[in-house]
Amino acid sequence: MKLTYHTFDLQLKHTFTIAHDSRDVQPTLIVKLSDGNFSGFGEATSNPYYGITIENMISSLETVKDFVENGHYDSAEELWDKVHASLLSNSFAQCALDEAAHDFFAKKKGQKLYQTWDLSIDHNPLTNFTIGIDTVEKMVAKMRELPWPIYKIKLGTNEDLLIVQELRKNTDAVFRVDANCGWTEAQTIELAPKLKDLGVEFIEQPLPATDLEGMKEVFAKSALPVIADESCIIESDVAKCQGLFHGVNVKLTKCGGPTAAKRMLAEARSLGMKTMVGCMTESSVGISLIAHLLPLLDYVDMDGSLLIKNDPATGVTFNFGNILYAAENGSGASLKVYNA
């Protein structure tokens, strides 16, 4: 087995702004696992909010490279278990490796990834398309640029209600809103019924992750369901979200990849919570992997590859919110140019 790295600067079509970040370029790391016959690809983007850089992801992967290339493991799950202790401080690096391993072993079996997980794609949810914080005029222009059945609207400004009111004048699409920890308890409870009247389906992570008492009040009094994001990072967080959130948004990079994500989603379902997976502005490599988790989800946010101008990969495609799988086995993703 050979482990190699490919780095890219993904150019965003528009400046992407949320409550605590703004960017025009998204650096990403794509890893490749190959035995000479089959190659698996995985991805994780850098993230200053979590202290993740391309350099520290590669550095972390270098600590397990000898085992990855020369050790014994017969599945992605077995590899995850054997390297987890070494990658505990960098879940993004583990995610990229885990995605590549799942892709590799599915290709080796001659199956699509969802088939190796015994999942049916007959009732997949639609993905939303994200509208980042901007002037109302530019947010409206972004919607007109890509008509879509569901929009996720990033909020966390002093004019959040006005923004949603103005956007509603321009589309009949379902809205979801994401405050990225930018609201208070009182704000959330006050805004929720007004947002519900404007066709908002749910609120994602309204309060800072540390405000547990505030979330108890929001959970009890909000007119809309609330979905955890920053409050649900790793597996042990799922149970903590019960009674605070109506559902969880699992990010593969934050939890260490699909191996851990599948366990988190199963636990959330067992606790009666809604399930969602979100992306981190990945290319078609990371986005294609998410597509195979769709049968386990109530909601999905996998628009990363739609937000970039220079996707270095091919994979799943989209038709008005519907996800179309690639013909290839595994995740279906391939790099357009790489050194084989």
Automatic annotation (TrEMBL):
Its cofactor is Mg(2+). Its EC number is 5.1.1.-. The keyword Cell membrane does not apply. Signal peptide: none annotated. Coiled coil: none annotated. Residues 136-225 form the Mandelate racemase/muconate lactonizing enzyme C-terminal domain. SUPFAM superfamilies: Enolase C-terminal domain-like (SSF51604), Enolase N-terminal domain-like (SSF54826). The active site is at residues 154, 251. SMART domains: MR_MLE. Keywords: Isomerase, Magnesium, Metal-binding. It comes from the Bacteria. PANTHER family: D-GALACTONATE DEHYDRATASE-RELATED, ENOLASE SUPERFAMILY MEMBER DDB_G0284701. Belongs to the mandelate racemase/muconate lactonizing enzyme family. This is Dipeptide epimerase.
